[in-house]
Amino acid sequence: MAVRCGGAARSAAALDQLDDPSGATARLVFCTKNGTALSAGNVRRDFRKVVKKAGLAETEWTPKEMRHSFVSLLSDSGVPIEHISRPVGHANTVVTETVCRSQIRPVLGEGATAMDGIFGKALEA
Fold this sequence. Notes:
By secondary structure, this protein is mainly alpha-helical. It contains six helices and no strands.
């Protein structure tokens, strides 16, 4: 996946060098069939199709969920926050740290402790 992401970034950089007929810089890596920018609705609709094909619950997975998972998994794997904020499009690390970064391991640990407390009491009874 990292190779594909790097390829997309290089493609975007190459597109920065091209001018479209309107004189604007062509920066779209992903676009509609007509070459226009994707709307949030386009992205959500297409994402739901992919989620459904994967056999997952369409209502439980959103592009935002995937973005947060991406940040959390990289963070939990020890990737510096500065390196995570760039591919998700944050100008600095503040948003990445305060909004997106949810450490998986501590959350799982807290959840496991809570479940042990709940089920431990049930088993003792």
